[in-house]
Amino acid sequence: MIPVGPLHITSDEPGHFRLFVDGEQIVDADYRLFYVHRGMEKLAETRMGYNEVTFLSDRVCGICGFAHSVAYTNSVENALGIEVPQRAHTIRSILLEVERLHSHLLNLGLSCHFVGFDTGFMQFFRVREKSMTMAELLIGSRKTYGLNLIGGVRRDILKEQRLQTLKLVHVTAHRIDPLVEMLLATPNMEQRTQGIGILRSRQIARDPLL
Fold first, then answer.
1. Is 83 exposed, middle or buried (CB count within 10 Å of its CB: 0-12, 13-18, 19+)?
2. Distance of CA 112 to the CA centre of its chain
3. CA-to-CA separations, 169 to 54, 98, 101, 102, in angstroms, rounded
4. E-strand spans in 97-205?
5. What is the pLDDT of residue 11?
6. Of 106, 134, 77, nearest to 69 (Cα)?
7. Is the pLDDT of residue 62 over 90?
8. Under CATH, to which class is 48-206 assigned?
9. Is 140 left (phi over 0), alpha (psi -120 to 50) or beta?
């Protein structure tokens, strides 16, 4: 048995995991979560106005906060039948894609680090800086956007911001392709990941995975 957490350097979230292993294969796992309960739901319910909650939901996660903010605003808008302008939908979608980009690059870098390929880790994080710069250009903040309002967004995206962001998108795409080729050509990555994390249809039918 190998214990991991609740305070462990590789834990992305505060939880305690007990991994039961047979050699290098994990055959079972036990877990206990909720070690850091922040009371965000009760805070939103009792201390904040409906538009203030957009700032709180931005802070649910340090990586995908804007997705939580959009989920909250969409829920309120759907419940109240509020129609959101198409431009606001578009701006939200752009920021969701920027967030998704830096989140994926983060996890690709961490995957390299976890298998001992730190060159890949540093290269993916170097490219990730471009996506963080996109957010800073569009919003003024690299991570916590504070963009959403019920029924729309707090600010527009100007022409100059769009042009600079498109240039960064082009540069980022140009730099990601060689990194993917590098990963696929690295024997250590293939040896450590081949056959790992495969979900077969019978497992999906048997186990609640979400």
1. exposed
2. 17
3. 27, 9, 10, 12
4. 148-149, 152-153
5. 59
6. 77
7. no
8. mainly alpha
9. left
Q: Is the pLDDT of residue 91 over 60?
A: yes
- In this predicted structure, the answer to whether residue 15 has a pLDDT above a threshold of 70 is yes
Domains of the chain, residue spans: 1-37, 48-206
How many angstroms separate the Cα of 160 from the Cα of each of 14, 38, 53, 135, 139? 41, 39, 30, 14, 13
Q: Does residue 5 contact residue 11 with C-beta atoms inside 8 Å?
A: yes
Q: Is 57 exposed, middle or buried (0-12, 13-18, 19+ CB in 10 A)?
A: buried
Contact 148, 70 (CB under 8 A): yes
The CA-to-CA distance between both ends of the chain, in Å, stands at 24
Whose tokens are 């963080």? That residue is 132
